[in-house]
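subagent[fold] <- orchestrator: predict structure for attached chain, return tokens only, no commentary.
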Amino acid sequence: MGSFRTLSLFDDEAVPILGGSLGWVPVRRRLGAGAFGTNAYRADRAGDAVIEDHVESPGQEEMYVVIRGSVRMEIGGEHTEASEGDVVFLPDPEVRRAGVALEDDTVVLAVGGWRDQPYHSLPWEPIFLAQDAMRRGDWAEAAETLEREAGEHIETGIVQFRLACCHAQAGEHDRALGELRRALESSPGLREKAAGDPLLEPLRDREGWPG
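subagent[fold] -> orchestrator:
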């Protein structure tokens, strides 16, 4: 693959996430980086989310670099504003964080990793890659994307759960039930989520529903 690889945080195609309002550039995946996690996020309009509301539950430290525009961040109930060239570092993975663009065409680069262990990829990446197809209601494409992109995470409970949702909506009920059973076997904590997820509604009256 050569001695170096490049991409543009401004011009590379972004994957629509969060209902299509936020553009995700999967920097790590596209460059093939394995030592750390890094992704870019683009908000077209001021007022749109540019950092989703979340905690880094897997335990990663995280750093945000404002590449263009400016951001208002809420971090553990506190607020800070960061402009082009500013860096915001969050050492505590359990602190909730979110960011809203204050200018059109805001771009933020996120970098994360574990202090005490090598980096490894996480299952949210293939789920993000399938979000646009799910938003458009192309459930077959969403399932195909998950299966193609999941890699080592294909046996992860949350990926199996999302596959079950896609197959259920695509009318592949037997496949959906199989994926759902596997998801709950590996991640019993998803049972409550399954009980209330509307995407699984086509399965609830079928034999084999894991009630």
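orchestrator: received. Logging for downstream: The chain has two domains: 15-113, 124-203. The longest strand covers residues 61-68.
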